[in-house]
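Dear U.,

For the methods section draft, I wanted the exact inputs and outputs in one place so we can describe them consistently. I've listed the two proteins in the order they'll appear in the manuscript figures. Please don't edit the token lines directly; just add comments below if something needs changing.

First protein:
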Amino acid sequence: MSNLQQPDTVVLVHGFGVDSRHFSPWLNSLQPYFDVRLIDLPGFGSTFSQTWPDSLDQLIDMLLPAFPARAIYCGWSAGGMVVTHLARRYPARVAGVFLLAANPAFVASADNDSW
């Protein structure tokens, strides 16, 4: 936690097949120390009706309004791919990253920006 009066913000980003409720067991441990934000990727949880975009850049553009100005990000599985891409595009918004069972991409491609 920083020396500021407000807690640091931690953003939790889930992977495919689950939604932000997957992080529920963590909340009691994290909330005393951090402002915890849960993000549902398009097509999951609270964003079930949204369509999955064609690229990581489009996904980041779609999610950017939901992300705080600066935070620590945790990405689980596909959420890790989202978080690392966010950090690459907007490094000033990312105070730190931690990944769980994450890869930089799901399939090999020339530009590594593929699902």
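Second protein (the one for the lower panel):
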Amino acid sequence: MYNLLNKSGDKMNEKKYYLGVDGGGSKTTAAVFDGEGRFIAEATGESINYYSVGRETARENLKAVISRLGVDEFECAVIGMSALNERADEKTTREFCGDIVRCNKIIMNSDLYIALEALNAPGECGAVISGTGSMAVIRNADGSVSHAGGWGYILGDEGSGYSIALSGIRAAIRAAEGSGVRTALLPACLDYFGITDIYELIELYYDKTVSRKATAAFAEKVIGEAEEGDTAALDILEREAAELAATAKSLLDRIKSGSPIGLWGGIFQNSELYREIFTQKLGEDYKDRVKLLDFTPEIGAVIAALRENSVYINEIVLSNIKNTYRKATL
């Protein structure tokens, strides 16, 4: 049995600990709580999306995050990751993390599943993520979960950081060649990549291979120029938000009117402008239902872990989570 010390130095041998992991496209965040919702430890690290970084790298990244927690064993763990669209079977879960996470019960599911848990809403609800990638999910009246999007940066991810960034880079290229409108995205692109000629992008992308994470980070520049009123950048946000809204509405229109909808991911979290445009694209029926998640996704994973172990999530538990974990809410 693992052995921890509380603040007074007493041993806490009999406590049960619950692990929640949010494995996004760019980073991984893990948090540990006890059965009463009190914060124990947290750690962050690199992506565990094995489609993006490869299986062995993903496992090493998860191992590194878990080792930083300082907790040896868990009663239940829920790992949400952007590589999954649904709950992984026992074989997949065991092969990926069974020798990394010492736990009585481990569940791997999509990052959308833990986003729904983080919304902290019973019954029908929905969530939309716009981070490095993008996806949408709903919980139906019967408790089942449906999702849309999540096709990855090659086949989909409309309205995501990667898609916004790539659109911004392409707008810069067209401006340089004279085939598109003049835009501040051109000097922003040159500065971001540390180049003096737009044609240097060819070598960067085709010879040196710019990472997906590095590309997606340019979305911040696109959003920044849009906030300054750049027409091309604003057009990109309008178009990307419209495409993501169309993906989301294919699901959201199935649940009853008034059901809450949570937003998460770096793009939604850090850009009020993009949240406003996206909500507008959803339509009038949705404007009073859309909000950022009540809890961060790793807390959604912790809540799911508690529920999986038949811990009743009452107001005391939720209050403890909010009051003991500095990142529980925005």
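Candidate sentences for the figure legend, describing the second protein: Confidence is low (pLDDT under 50) at residues 1-13. DSSP finds 15 helices and ten strands in the chain.

Thanks,
Y.
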